[in-house]
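Dear H.,

Thanks for agreeing to be a second pair of eyes. The structure we're designing against is below in token form, covering all 623 positions.
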């Protein structure tokens, strides 16, 4: 960190730009940026002698404190005083064994308290963070996800020795040092406006001190507990796949949430499985929900939607203390709702819509779908993505899509909509299960395999009693065609607004991803669990739009934009499923840094990995 201090010492205490310094070159004052990390290099021979008078320059924005490296980059091009810092800690300094997302997640949560301690010394509620200065560590909530705020990576070792000032010594004609496996923690640092003395202290003292304190006090027992929980979750997920179950809710789980934040509600009644549904997996007893058609019913405010929300949350693993850490669901599950106004392009919705005026339901396209057509489209999207479980709450569904009783069927003879009641059993026979929350109609009781009733947040199995009261099941319609056409885009997609050479990428507070000329509404992709997943989704779309090319300069970008605009009608169709699959293969090798860039001033840089389904679903919502 001595070299970083040298740069910072060249910035006057009253400067308002903490990352621009001034040096004298050939008698002239020249401004440089710390982000460049420009060093003077003196080359050495293997014995340590100078290699003649050979010198050079090198960009090295990584600074070392013993064996820990700190790499600085712009958070975005307009945030000179808010660097993103990647802290690279060799795994030998930790008791890490598997380098898994669960271990990275645990370390992120553990290191945060030391930066909170550093922040406390500057906190002044009467002033803004830009006045005070602040370290920002990503808050992961209760979910354990692959994220760019904490991950493991193999990185180059230090291949130079520090000299005075910004001088480094590089030994030539020798093999570079071995790469090293590191835990990478990514934070942002808001440097105080016009307070260089404090900025220097934050970067060269508080930052490394927080990391060293984290390492000194690292809780290995907590790490082991997190890994043990992860193993239990993995065993339960495998059990579901191998034993015809689609979800598991452990006894003692706290399902109710605080309204203001995603944390367990204080004083909430712990979940208890009905006795005849209780199973034991990995030493944990709880309720196993079998594949097929499951109905959860009950009166208002009885807890039925709370149970469904917990099942939906079980797509992802959660940390201990979340209350739902042992609520495990088939990770292909998709929450289905009506989505009035969504765009649909060339999608087969014929299992639910028999005819459309002036259109073909087998190749349905619209820029503004109705409640029923949108819900049918959402189900067909999930099936195309190989979802094995649909999660549906009647409160968020189109009524005419969900049910039609015998009286209405006899009254309305020319009805284009085939209600979901008529298809749900057929779907189950194809391997797609459904869990429904129903409180206002008995139509699903006759087609359900299992029926549970919530009564004051207590689950009861009422299958036999409910079926005795169920209305007669109508004759199922003709078997449906559940296949969808290949998901292709003609000419691809573009991140450039028409006629512009500058890219557009943003995520709005109202739930839209803005890319190029498109505003993609992702508010009804209910299984996106964090804002950081939306950030990653936007960056993924941008990566796909650029044809998997990164690092284009402005002229190349303009040329690419013009080529795309002129050749949209002549380019071959692009198989988006294959493109997304290829992207995830690369992300598996490189990590989320593959798609990251600080070019866009309206984008948050913290990212959590979404599922491929959500990426494809977002593209399908493009107009």
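And this is the sequence the design step returned. I haven't edited it by hand at all.
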């Amino acid at each position: 960190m001595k070299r970083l201090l040298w740069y910072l010492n060249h910035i006057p205490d009253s400067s308002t730009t903490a990352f621009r310094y001034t040096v004298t070159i050939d008698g002239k004052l020249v401004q440089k940026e710390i982000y460049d990390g420009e060093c003077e290099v003196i080359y050495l021979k293997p014995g340590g002698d100078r290699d003649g008078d050979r010198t050079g320059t090198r960009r090295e924005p990584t600074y070392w404190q013993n064996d820990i490296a700190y790499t600085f980059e712009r958070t975005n091009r307009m945030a000179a005083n808010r660097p993103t810092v990647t802290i690279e800690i060799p795994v030998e300094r930790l008791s890490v064994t598997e380098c898994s997302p669960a271990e990275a997640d645990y370390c992120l949560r553990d290191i945060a308290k030391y930066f909170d301690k550093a922040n406390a010394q500057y906190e002044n509620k009467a002033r803004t963070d830009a006045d005070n200065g602040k370290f920002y560590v990503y808050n992961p909530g209760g979910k354990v996800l692959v994220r760019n705020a904490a991950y493991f990576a193999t990185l180059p070792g230090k291949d130079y020795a520090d000299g005075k000032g910004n001088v480094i010594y590089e030994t030539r004609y020798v093999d570079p040092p071995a790469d090293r496996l590191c835990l990478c923690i990514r934070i942002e640092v808001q440097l105080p406006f016009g307070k260089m003395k404090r900025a220097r202290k934050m970067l060269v003292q508080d930052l490394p001190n927080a990391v060293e304190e984290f390492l000194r006090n690292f809780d290995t027992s907590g790490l082991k507990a997190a890994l043990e929980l992860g193993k239990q979750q993995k065993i339960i997920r495998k059990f579901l796949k191998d034993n015809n179950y689609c979800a598991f809710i452990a006894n003692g789980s706290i399902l109710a949430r605080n309204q203001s934040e995603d944390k367990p509600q204080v004083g909430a009644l712990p979940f208890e499985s009905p006795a005849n549904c209780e199973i034991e997996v990995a030493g944990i007893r709880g309720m196993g929900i079998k594949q097929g058609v499951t109905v959860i019913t009950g009166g208002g405010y009885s807890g039925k939607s709370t149970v469904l929300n917990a099942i939906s949350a079980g797509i992802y693993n959660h940390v201990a203390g979340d209350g739902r850490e042992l609520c495990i669901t088939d990770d292909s599950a998709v929450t289905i709702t009506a989505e009035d106004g969504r765009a649909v392009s060339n999608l087969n919705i014929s299992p639910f819509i028999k005819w459309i005026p002036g259109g073909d339901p087998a190749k349905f396209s619209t820029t503004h779908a109705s409640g029923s057509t949108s819900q049918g489209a959402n189900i067909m999207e999930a099936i195309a993505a190989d979802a094995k479980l649909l999660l549906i709450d009647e409160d968020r569904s189109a009524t005419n899509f969900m049910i039609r009783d015998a009286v209405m069927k006899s009254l309305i003879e020319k009805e284009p909509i085939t209600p979901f009641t008529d298809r749900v059993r057929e779907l189950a026979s194809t391997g797609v299960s459904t869990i429904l929350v129903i409180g206002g109609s008995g139509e699903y009781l006759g087609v359900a395999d299992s029926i549970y009733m919530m009564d004051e947040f207590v689950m009861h199995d009422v299958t036999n009693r409910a079926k005795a009261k169920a209305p007669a099941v109508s004759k199922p319609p003709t078997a449906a065609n559940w296949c969808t056409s290949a998901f292709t885009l003609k000419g691809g997609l573009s991140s450039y607004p028409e006629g512009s050479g500058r890219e557009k990428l943003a995520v709005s507070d109202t739930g839209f991803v803005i890319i190029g000329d498109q505003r993609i509404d992702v508010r009804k992709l209910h299984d996106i669990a964090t804002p950081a997943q939306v950030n990653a989704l936007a960056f993924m779309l941008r990566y796909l739009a650029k044809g998997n090319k990164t690092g284009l300069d402005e002229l190349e970008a303009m040329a690419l934009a013009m080529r795309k605009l002129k050749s949209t009608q002549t380019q071959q169709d692009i198989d988006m499923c294959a493109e997304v699959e290829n992207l995830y293969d690369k992300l598996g090798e490189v990590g989320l840094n593959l798609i990251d860039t600080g070019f866009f001033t309206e984008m948050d840089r913290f990212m959590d990995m979404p599922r491929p389904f959500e990426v494809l679903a977002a593209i399908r919502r493009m107009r």
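Two observations from my side: DSSP finds 15 helices and 31 strands in the chain. Residues 549-556, 565-570 have pLDDT under 50 and may be disordered.

Warmly,
E.
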